[in-house]
Write a structure and sequence with these properties.
Layout lengths: L1 E4 L2 E4 L4 H10 L11 H7 L14 H14 L2 H23 L11 H18 L14 H12 L16 H29 L10 H5 L8 H17 L1
Antiparallel strand pairs: 1-2
Helix pairs in contact: 2-7, 4-5, 5-9, 6-7, 6-9
Length: 237
Amino acid sequence: LFLRLGSAPVIVISSPQLAKEFLLTHDKTFANRPTFTSAKCMVGSEAHRAVLLLPYGEEWRSGRKLYSLQLLSTHRIQEFQSNIILREIHHLISNNLQPTGRATLVNLTDWFDKLLENIICSIIFQQRPSEVMVEGSLSLSQLTRKAAHLISTPLISDFLPWLGFMDSKLKVTMKKWRSSFIAIMNHIINERKRTNTGANNVKPKDILDVFLLPENNLSEDMIQVYIAVSSSNNLLH
């Protein structure tokens, strides 16, 4: 079914056979993803260079290679499962379920949201988001939750550019989020560089260590983009 949402052409697929045609058979043709206004406001001018938003090409293949070989390899996933995922599950249960001898009402949605948030941030930084705070900024926990909400909010300018002025308030909120996020990322990255200074042949312990490897040649701006897009996208899903 072909639709036009304002000026944006959209195809709605409702059968597994057609989904296979788009996602597998003709994957390269439909591999490009649009860069939405929310990504530009929250991630900045480099948003289009994040692997999740890059058009298909050499830069996309390089980014995909970084993820598949260094970040999400089978060995790395097994490390995450044994060192982080199981630890966070145990932490969540031990801190929220105390024997009381009576039935207790549990909000599983909040539990799983918090568990996912802790796992993602522990994989990236080795820290739970509630443990990361910069004076004058929101905590990383507040930022990740706010990002998931903001990035899922549609902006009129993505569909009707001439009505973009109606998004001005939301754009200001997104840019404020970006300022707080940059402050926390700079704090985390500088602290990690200081910790790693003078350490020779240190095995990467998390995703941030991999991003900081000299051979990957990533600027601090690009590291922030990769982390912002990856974490908010995962929390959204």
